[in-house]
Design a protein that fits this description.
By secondary structure, the chain is mainly α. It contains twelve helices and no strands. α4 runs antiparallel to α5 and α4 packs across α10. The longest helix has about 35 residues. It is globular and about 85 Å long. The two termini are about 15 Å apart.
């Protein structure tokens, strides 16, 4: 396992190098500059700012400097907010985004698996039809549409939850649900399909022949094998939760990292865009690595290199 993890860490470093390089050159090739919106800037001040942030240097010098800074996790000062570093903005916003993301993932996995199991146990019956309808609607409707609908009906009309802000647990329920619902539907469909396949296997038929109850067979035998496709989806789920939270955080005025990321793109704040991009990339790449390791924990028959015994 150690050899496998070291190999994957090398691939992660290579992927990060590609992401840093692509982000750097895409930002530099885009028209405009971080100070283009400041129309009242005298040319002398703009020239001084360009010199301060190294924007007057040749592209290869800027690229080299940024590679060194990224390797030491020093993402530099914001070009739009005075005396604010990218590292401080990440440290300020990420705990909020992490809390919201973990809550959304727990909701998506917990209720998605439960709905999928119920649908499989009552195949071609009313609970199955109801669960399938819910899953299709969850997958079809984007998270920002769900966010707006829940904000209007549940928060504004019924006043069951706060409309926006981040002042306690109740403020996180609606945004977490908005992010989780689409993933919940996909997990429900994955679990249902996998459960139906496992229910037709010989070991399940043998367990039923021994007189074991329906739910006993689920928890002792089928669920563990049926969760493998769900574990596979954890990598994309992490990516979806992270990227999906950008817009949802804006809608609910959640002071997470998504707010800084969206604003930095609008402001052409190079250092914040690249810093948050690298930070998110690190999280997603390590999430994929953890998912691969979980494979061997859930099913020991699967080797980390992907072959079976």
């Amino acid at each position: 396992m150690i050899k496998y993890i070291l190999k994957r860490l090398m691939y992660i470093l290579l992927a990060l190098f590609v992401i840093v390089t692509a982000t750097f050159f895409l930002l530099r090739l885009a028209p405009g500059n971080p100070f283009a919106s400041e129309r009242n800037f005298p040319p002398q001040i703009e020239e001084k700012l360009n010199e301060t942030y190294g924007l007057n240097n040749p592209w290869y010098i800027q690229y080299k400097d940024y590679l060194i800074d990224a390797a030491t996790f020093d993402f530099g000062e914001s070009m739009k907010y005075k005396a604010r570093s990218t590292n401080d903005m990440i440290a300020e916003g990420f705990p909020v985004s992490l809390t919201l993301g973990i809550e959304a993932m727990l909701l998506a996995i917990g209720f998605g698996v439960l709905i999928g199991v119920v649908a499989a146990l009552y195949h071609n019956k009313f609970p199955d039809y109801l669960a399938t309808t819910f899953a299709v609607l969850g997958i079809s409707v984007p998270s920002f549409i769900l966010a707006g609908l829940m904000q209007y009906f549940l928060a504004y009309k019924l006043q069951l939850f706060p409309i926006s802000g981040w002042k306690g647990f109740s403020y996180s329920i609606l945004p977490a649900l908005a992010i989780a619902l689409s993933h919940m539907g996909f997990i429900a469909k994955l679990t249902r399909s996998s459960m139906l396949e496992e229910n037709n296997s010989d070991y399940v038929k043998m367990a039923r022949a021994k007189g074991l109850g329906k739910w006993t067979v689920v928890f002792r035998h089928t669920l563990r094998n049926a969760l493998l496709p769900v574990v596979t989806y954890l990598g994309p789920l992490t990516a979806g939760v992270v990227t999906g939270s950008f817009i949802v955080e804006q809608i609910f005025a959640v002071p997470g990292l998504g707010k800084h990321f969206v604003q930095s793109i609008t402001n052409r704040d190079y250092t914040v865009v690249m810093g948050t991009t690298v930070f998110f990339a690190i999280i997603l790449l390590f999430a994929v690595l953890i998912v691969d390791i979980l494979y061997s924990v859930i099913d020991p028959r699967i080797k980390l290199k992907g072959a079976k015994k």
